[in-house]
Write a structure and sequence with these properties.
It contains 12 helices and 12 strands. By secondary structure, it is an alpha/beta fold. The protein folds into 2 domains: 3-102 and 276-298, Rossmann fold (3-Layer(aba) Sandwich), CATH 3.40.50.720; 104-268, 3-Layer(aba) Sandwich (Rossmann fold), CATH 3.40.50.720. It binds 3-phosphoglyceric acid. Pfam families: 2-Hacid_dh, 2-Hacid_dh_C.
Length: 307
């Protein structure tokens, strides 16, 4: 019987686990669970005899892959797969996949939750401001960006987008005005919502020069990855620009410095929670389980991210 391990340091909701089990049961596969593990050694022993693995932001390194001698496929139940060592997977002939789109709406809703929280003085009772009529720039127009645009229209915001991999026609069809350069996006928009992946090209790319182009009252919303931010540059900018606010679903490495120096102008969730809804857990978890069944029974490689 094939064994599928769900290894999540940040667990899925119970209903998602129940639904993953139904998918695996009906294929005759066995579910194994490792949740809330605190030490890498627990992961290393849990992977020892499994055929497949579902993870979230859990790091799948060459060490983990070496310990997983039977592993044929690992699925990141989510969008960003910067936690998977793709080269190491390829070298060991392990297929790596993600589940694009499955948790996107959850992340997009959190963008607006954080924006309202920030604009309403963190619910302190002070006089804040509204989103209506303001400009929002969607930096990377993938699945999350699409939902951010849809919701922004509901708030009557002016919606702009920049994504070199997405056609202007697609954005226009959704009522999003495409801008030709990243600089133009930052120059135009009071709010920027980041949806770029963390990779060698994007790490530290959101830097002081770019951020300083944003108009007065600028707000950067980060539900992507902390690695894309040049934190030193951002701190310098926030020192110079008392109008600038940073809202992030991922606590920065220099969180303490932000807290000390910029009270009222930052907000960080205690743990990355963009995808923490029952719906997103079910969608991403079940999609991952189905992809595993499909690959192991018929070789279907849709959503493979390593070659
Ligand atoms: C993603 O890339 O899908 C999101 O960042 C969610 O990550 P999580 O599953 O670790 O919450």
């Amino acid at each position: 019987m094939k064994k599928v391990l769900v290894a999540t340091e940040k667990p899925f909701s119970q209903i998602a686990i129940d639904e993953i089990k139904i998918v695996l049961d009906s294929a005759g596969f066995q579910l194994e669970l490792l949740e809330k593990y605190t030490d890498k050694s627990q992961l290393l022993s849990a992977v020892a005899d499994v055929d497949a693995m579902i993870v979230r932001s859990d790091k799948v390194t060459s060490e983990v892959l070496d310990a997983a001698k039977n592993l044929k496929i690992v699925v990141r139940a989510g969008a960003g797969y910067d936690n998977l060592d793709l080269d190491a997977c390829t070298q060991r002939e392990v297929v790596a996949m993600n589940t694009p789109g499955q948790n996107s709406n959850a992340v997009a809703e959190l963008v607006f939750g954080m924006m309202i929280y920030g604009m309403r003085k963190q619910f302190s009772g002070g006089v804040g401001s509204e989103l209506r009529g303001k400009s929002i720039g969607i930096h990377a127009y993938g699945n999350v960006g699409y939902y951010v645009g849809k919701i922004a229209h509901g708030f009557d915001m002016k919606v702009y987008g920049y994504d070199p991999y997405v056609s202007a026609d697609r954005m226009q069809a959704h009522g999003v005005e495409p801008l030709a350069s990243v600089e133009e996006l930052y120059r135009t928009c009071e709010f920027i919502s980041l949806h770029i992946p963390a990779n060698d090209f994007t790490k530290n790319s959101i830097n002081k020069a770019l951020l300083s182009m944003m108009p007065q009252g600028a707000v950067l919303v980060n539900t992507a990855r902390k690695e894309v931010i040049d934190e030193d540059g951002m701190i310098e900018l926030m020192d110079e620009r008392p109008d600038f606010m940073y809202l992030s679903d991922i606590s920065p490495d220099k969180a303490e410095e932000f807290k000390k120096r910029f009270p009222g102008r930052y907000f960080f969730t205690p743990k990355k929670m963009g995808a923490q809804t029952e719906e997103a857990n079910v969608n991403a978890g079940v999609a991952a389980a189905r992809q595993i069944v499909s690959y192991l029974t018929s070789g279907d490689e849709t959503f493979r991210v390593n070659r």
